[in-house]
Request: fold
Amino acid sequence: MICTSIQGKTLEEILQILESGEVEMAEIRLDLCDLDEEEIEVLFTDSDVPLIATCRIAEAAKRVEAEANRLNDAGKVLSEQGLYMSEPRRGRNPAEEFAENQLLKAIEAGAKYVDLEVEAPPMMGRKIRQACQQYGSVLIRSFHDFEGTPPEATLLSTLEKSRRFGGEVVKIVTTATCKADADRVMNLYREVEPGTLVAFCMGPEGRESRLEALKQGAPFTYACLTPEEATAPGQWTAAEMREAVYGGFRFIGAEGLDMPASKSFAQRAIVAAALADGTSHLGGYSPCGDNESALAAARRLGAKVIVNGSDLEITGISAFEKCLAINEISVGESGFLTRMLIPVLSAIADGPVRVSGEKTLLNRPLAGAHDIMASFGVRLIPEVLPSDNRKGDCFVPLTVKGPLVPGRADVSGKGGSQLISGLLAALPLAGNRSTVYVHDPRSIPYMFITVDVLRKFGIEIGSEMEGDEDFLQTQDWSLCTGVTFKMRGNQHYRAADFRIEGDWSGAANFLVAGAIFGDVEVEGLDTQSLQADISIMDILMDAGASMSQLEGEAATTGPVHVTRAPLCAFETDLNNCPDLFPIVSILAAFCPGTNRIRGVERLRHKETDRAAAIVDMLTQMGVPVQVDEDEMTVEGMGLPQRILTGNLLKGGQYTSHGDHRMVMALKVASLGADGPIDIDDTACVAKSFPGFLDLFEKL
Reply:
């Protein structure tokens, strides 16, 4: 990215510059801008533009000296009037103390980056480093040589020292007197991971190195507002650098993108409302293939359903009062609805029930379903089994033969949470207490979405999570080793009224698009949601994106805003949120360095073998990718480097494999491709997000 150095400006002038849209990143020279502590707090708290807080000790010394002279002159006047000023504080170097205070204030206010000279006193360095760790700022340790360019050995020693002194990003800037000087500095990029070094040369001989730095993988380079405001010889203006880096590349910008209802919440709420006594009112509904299948299933169970725009009115069947006479039901293409209804049907039906489906669902195994349901006395009888079904998995269509017998069972969570969610919905209807212990749990948040939705309908379920000491300290779901659910029998579903929250799965695609390609604001989300895919916020922040939440009706429901910032390699575990895998893999392609994404095994039996589909997609795009057991590694490259080196993603003909989430990921990827990306089947996106393509056109 292009970082514009700003000096000699007031707060109002800086804010105008940042709001102009002409600056994608800025360095605020606190040593050269006259900002008080309150103004520093306002600037670094309110700006969505990534900011670097810089306060050079040498320049700070000039300010301190000027202030001392002013105070000395004022003291002479007061002395002549018979008044006296207090003695200045002694001990620390005033310039160092001033620089430290300015930087600490910026860190506390939310500066994304803090630049501290590697020559700063050790005590000051430790204090700034600790503050960066506490508040989440990225520490840049910088070295400047205004006289020349040291030998290679000195440069390498400086690089190592800067890392040792806490530099997450190292900045090395020297003065070039010839091309060999610039080449020597550029050679430093061979010694570092992409995105961790900013190295270039000052002076006319070093001018091109400022652009070359981006080609070599620097996260950003520096420019000035105008030639008169250059902070060093040979500096480009921001306008010149933008033209050289981006040319005609199109960045995106959109606000007011309203997200559809979460189908995770919607389907659970529809089934629960269908089982309830009374009439439930659910707001915020939006249709998609899976949600419509849930409504059709509710009607087949005997519930009365009225759809009025985004409002649902569902009069339930009072499932606890009767044994349902039903012999067949369709679940459409919804894997979740299949697994949710199997236990429910075994609890409420008066005999065997045939469950049918369509499209990709017919080829998707219900891993572990046979054994789990057998633990509660239920038989699953599939009609057709593939010849290579060595694991003995069930497939739709099948017949569910109950009744569901309450009790205690230990079940594996390796196959996901969906069937467990069905058990949580069904066992409270049984005659006695039940306990379900889930070992090797996956998709844990989805289990607790089920518990949360059922609670709204009057169903009480207790839960306990277990894990090692690290889990107990962090509550990181990926470290959880088991979950126990306990519930009474003979419970009654009661009607409920609430609004279905927005979908983080679909929103993730737009948020990633904003983080890579521009500026996006989405609405309709709850930032305290139980949805597993809210993890996209943590992933984006780990990758360096700039995120904020604007004011809304409630503190957690305002629009979520994400804008471009220098991205960096990340590691994440998607075992609990496998639906994020396609779009997170596209994010990884634009994060310089080696990105590691765990949870591959969860992808084998989605709408397609999603792991193979992602590998095929990235390989065709020219992105190095490999899978080793449960981990996918993606070698990423920042957008400026891709543009400058001709390594944009490859356009061409792509297949979605009939997978709605692959369609969305491919569309986002098309924003960074060297030509159109044509997708063989985009209609399948209607399974979860029918309005996606229209909304995407607004970017």
Remarks:
- Confidence is low (pLDDT under 50) at residues 83-89.
- The longest strand covers residues 480-487.
